[in-house]
Design brief:
Layout lengths: L2 E2 L6 E3 L3 E3 L2 H13 L3 E9 L8 E11 L2
Antiparallel strand pairs: 1-2, 2-5, 3-5, 4-5
Length: 67
């Protein structure tokens, strides 16, 4: 479940969380923040076939300090 970062001893990072839209991702982030994780990075995967602002998925990377 956790990937340990060897460069930062005691930091565990989850694989990227992917959802279809921002509201679903906000719910997932809020749930993990209640469990002690913190948000590291958040972004969108653009759709390369449509030239407007449509995106395929939104993602977030969460980590937790384990001391």
């Amino acid at each position: 479940m956790f990937n340990r970062l060897l460069a930062h001893n005691g930091v565990f990072r989850l694989p990227p969380i992917q959802r279809k839209n921002d509201s679903e991702l906000d719910v997932a982030i809020a749930d993990l923040e209640k469990r002690g994780f913190r948000l590291v990075r958040r972004g969108k995967t653009p759709n390369r076939y449509i030239r407007d602002t449509a995106c395929l998925r939104v993602w977030a990377i969460m980590e937790k300090y384990m001391y």
